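Convert to structure. Protein one:
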Amino acid sequence: MQTVEDKVLVDNLTKGDDRAFAELYRKYHSDLYRYAWKFLRCDNDAKEIVHDVYFKIWEKRETLNSDLSIKYFLIKVCKNMVLNQMVKAARLSAYKQEILIASNENLENETEDAVIYADFEKFAHAAIAHLPPQRQAVYKMCKMEEKSYEEAAEAFGISKGTVRDHMLKATRSIKKFLSTT
């Protein structure tokens, strides 16, 4: 039920009276703060909600109905803002949780990838070790040291075609070794 005093305050507020707004603020500020704090349990968040409630009231002052309870209206606006804040906080928390889970999965994947890579590297070195010495040396120079076929041919005193042949046979042999283990 709207009191006569509140009805006059709302009527004056709808006309843009700053003093009516200040009086409304003084009269209900602590009730709204307690209401917001009861749910949010954070001083800054409760103060911000109350500030936002009064900001919204000032913005909508021309549409306020002086026949309705302003106290009830203020509490209803406060309640909606508190609920919105709580939903936003829950979404943020869920989002943070998703990021944490994803980053942990990435760490697990990185660890798993490192183990797989180490195993692969071990098998690759074993496959290379099964090559004949000359082919092994040519393969290491071209693949691991990233030398050109020309550089390998010059280093071993063989033709570029022979280097190409060693590389082709080494690659086939390594693929065959890896597919059988």
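Protein two, convert as well:
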Amino acid sequence: MSGAELFPDARDADGARSDAGPLRWKVHVVINLRAGTALGLTQAEIEHTVTEAFSRAGHAVSVFCVLPEEVEAAVARAATSDIDVLVVGGGDGTVRTGARHVMGTDKALGILPLGTMNRMAKDLEIPHSLGAAVAFLSNAKPSKVDVGTVNGSIFLCNSIMGATLSFSVGRARLRGRPARERLPRYFLILREILSSRRKLSIVVDNGEDRLRIRALSVAVTNNGYDETMSWFRRSRLANGTLTMYVSKHRSGFGLALALGRALIGRWHGDPEMVKLTGSEFAIYSRKRSKWLANDGELLKFDTPLRYAIVPRALKVLMKHGS
């Protein structure tokens, strides 16, 4: 039995989803118990908070709290069932797993931001605390957003290579360790990035030109960052474009200054920051493979790196009016 059959008012007389009145869904929630902000709550507290909020809104909900190594299988099972909404609770890696399994289907993805960075959740303006996030999702609406890919592997926010990759490497190595161990190491990583001068020798093909570039860092985003005081927020998630930001700065310190200006909306006027926009990019390198951080998750890819946008390929829960 589908969620719509459980809640008849979820569809109109023609069997299509109705925009009039609240939707009633069959919701399946998978929580990564080792996610950063989930560690301060007991499993019983998590299950109670999530179940109460969705039930109060009239949805049928089932909640499963699992260990990190069980997330993939739990999400895969849910994605092949008769649910309307898959909600995943965890960091960006868990969110990416959920997106990969429901992308291209009629199921919507809901995000409970329980990780460290929570990139996609910030773009969707989902509150950080568990209670507020669940209340947000239980009253949200499904809307379609774009998905970025590189060599067929998806990313929802960005794909990064170069100097700033050190931060993702450090986070991966320090994940799960106490804060007293992580914080000093983060400062060492930051110092390493600021002093970095190692450049990438790449050729970028945007479909019109082939640009030979010596880059300190490259970030490809699924749609571009707002050019306002936005703290790297993307308010437009379905424009059907990729944006590539290429840093040609001499050192990580110069890049840091450029990022600082970008944080307050001063994107323009830096000749060492190249911005390219398109629906496809190819990046060629002398090296046979490259490490990338896709939404913070470290992955190794053969070159050339072929980036593409898949327009409106994923349904996500977001606030009304988005």
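Residues 1-21 have pLDDT under 50 and may be disordered. The chain is about 30% helix and 35% strand.
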